[in-house]
TrEMBL record:
Keyword Membrane set for record: yes
Signal peptide: 1-19
Family listed: Belongs to the MntP (TC 9.B.29) family.
Organism: Moraxella nasicaprae
TM region positions: 35-56, 68-86, 106-126, 133-156, 162-184
Function: Probably functions as a manganese efflux pump.
Main location: membrane
Cellular localization per UniProt: Cell membrane
Record-given protein name: Putative manganese efflux pump MntP
Topology in the lipid bilayer: Multi-pass membrane protein
Keywords (A to Z) from UniProt: Cell membrane, Ion transport, Manganese, Membrane, Signal, Transmembrane, Transmembrane helix, Transport
Length: 186
């Protein structure tokens, strides 16, 4: 996976957390720097660890699925991206998490990072440094959620939905890129 795809993946993985952080910000009049950093760190660390967990599960299973790993990566990424778009514009789009306590923030961080674990499984089938990928995903998520909660009261829920749709489109595009690259090179 090249650097551009890895950066795009990191931003795509952070979009649902960004949207959740914006929603959290919309429920507050002001957000202190400490609160924004705490929310960012919670989401960032969770989003960093989940793809690593998925990666190691995927590495274990790689020998069993090597012949169709590119299809599996495509299906997983396109499925996650499509689901993210559907959740945003479909029936579930109006109900976004509203974390107010650390426990709720942590649960929301975990819920928004499950897709990162699945992406981690697909990364196991590619030539990627998972430590770099995890760190980049975690750092991007930290920055995006810190920003999201900070400006949530100003931007409102509408921008959060746009961010989720963009994240879904990017995930689908990465899945297509992986599939097409593999098919053209083999």
């Amino acid at each position: 996976m090249n650097a551009i795809a890895l950066i795009a993946l990191a931003f795509a993985m952070s979009m649902d957390a960004f949207a959740a952080a914006i929603v959290q910000g919309t429920h507050k009049r002001t957000v202190s720097v400490a609160t924004a950093l705490k929310v960012g760190a919670t989401f960032g660390i969770t989003e960093m660890l989940m793809p690593m967990m998925g990666y190691f599960v995927g590495r274990f299973a790689h020998a069993f699925v090597q012949a169709f790993d590119h299809w599996l990566s495509f299906i997983l990424l396109a499925g996650i991206g499509g689901h993210l778009i559907y959740e945003t514009i479909g029936d579930g789009g109006d109900e976004m998490p509203k974390p107010t306590s650390f426990t709720k923030t942590l649960l929301t961080a975990f819920a928004t990072s499950i897709d990162a674990m699945i992406v981690g499984v697909s990364l196991a089938f590619l030539s990627v440094n998972i430590w770099l990928a995890g760190a980049l995903i975690g750092l991007t998520t930290f920055l995006m959620t810190t920003l999201g909660v900070s400006v949530g009261a100003t931007l409102g829920k509408k921008v959060g939905k746009i961010a989720q749709i963009m994240g879904g489109v990017v995930l689908i595009a990465i899945g297509v890129f992986i599939l097409v690259t593999h098919l053209l090179n083999h």
